[in-house]
Design goal:
The chain is an all-beta fold. It is built from 1 helix and 29 strands. The termini are far apart.
Length: 330
């Protein structure tokens, strides 16, 4: 545990035995506020860091605290490998720690010109110690976006780069148990090739419209210039439960979506285009399109036999509400 004393401007580290509910010892005199610390799995060493202060390393068995320090104030990022034999850091410190290999992240990227002036933002090992994922900040000179963030997945311990995900974002990373995926932000990525496999809950960006089935078990949603979504399983709206349908090239400018009472039919209106109708046969969606108009809204009866739609265009058809006439036959 670390505590900060505002009056002295220093931090104190305490080591506690939770079985006995007692403090074993403490280290004091650490100038600055400790914001992060990490121990190896064996509990031998503790590494600490904080903004504008130095990184320290402590031997928790010998209670020795005079190992390396880094006063560069670069927002040091460190992580232990699960076996405790390696510390990865972006610290320029050249100090050593007995029995531990200290590696600067730049060693992995030194042969790639893209990362000549990069900085480490996230570093994390998988739980089984077979993978290391780095999120690296890169100066973006081409797109004038300032800084962009790449993911670099490295196989451990042979330090072979498996893939690089360009412009992956700065969000934190978690490895999924089982060694097949990692989660970053709201996406799930494959460890085999880095491709996103599924969107997570809440990831319907630029949500334009949504509709709920009559029994409340399904939600349909359309995304501006994107796809049409529906939850996979009746009544489950959390976790990795959404799937998307893309049809006719996708990337349509949707103006509304509707769903029938049981959730197996979806209707999506395309602004300046068709009304798309979809029926789900428990295996796949079958899509067809009807009637080109400037549609601005759409609704469906609970039994799925009738749809109503608004034409907001300026032409001869504009300003009317239309309703299907054959009870869902076509």
């Amino acid at each position: 545990a670390a505590g900060y004393d505002e009056s002295s401007g220093s931090s104190k580290l305490e080591k506690w035995n939770l079985d006995k509910s007692e403090r074993v010892t403490f280290f004091s005199g650490y100038y600055g506020k400790i914001t992060d610390m990490q121990s190896d799995t064996a509990g031998k060493y503790l590494i600490t860091d904080g903004p504008g202060i130095y990184m320290g390393a402590y031997d928790l068995e010998k209670m020795k605290s005079d190992y390396f320090k880094d006063t560069s104030g670069n927002g040091i990022i460190t992580c232990f490998s699960p076996d405790g034999k390696t510390i990865l850091t972006n610290s320029p410190s050249k100090e050593t720690l007995p029995g531990v290999n200290i590696i600067n992240f730049s060693e992995f990227l030194k042969n790639n010109s893209r990362y000549e002036n990069s900085s480490l933002q996230v570093a994390k090992f998988s739980r089984d110690g077979k993978y290391l994922l780095l999120t690296v900040e890169v100066v973006d000179s081409d797109d004038n976006e300032g800084y962009i963030y790449d993911d670099v997945l490295i196989r451990w311990p042979d330090q072979k780069i498996i893939f690089t995900n360009l412009k992956a974002g700065k969000a934190d990373v978690e490895f999924v148990p089982g060694g097949q995926y990692y989660i970053k932000g709201l996406k799930k990525f494959s460890l085999a090739d880095g491709r996103p496999t599924e969107e997570l809950e809440g990831s319907l960006w630029n949500l334009l419209d949504l509709a709920v089935s009559n029994d409340g078990k399904y939600i349909a949603a359309c995304v501006m210039d994107g796809q049409v979504y529906r939850n996979r399983t009746a009544g489950i709206f959390t976790g990795i439960s959404w799937f998307a349908e893309s049809f006719d090239g996708g990337n349509k400018s949707w103006s509304g979506v509707a769903i029938n009472g049981t959730g197996n039919e979806i209707f999506a209106a395309m602004n300046g285009g068709d009304i798309w109708c979809a029926n789900y046969n428990e295996t796949s969606w079958n899509w067809s399109s009807q009637n080109t108009r400037t549609w601005t809204g759409i609704a469906c009866s609970a039994n799925g036999q009738y749809i109503a739609a608004c034409d907001g265009g300026a032409g001869v058809h504009g300003g009317y509400i239309y309703i299907s006439k054959d009870g869902g036959v076509n």
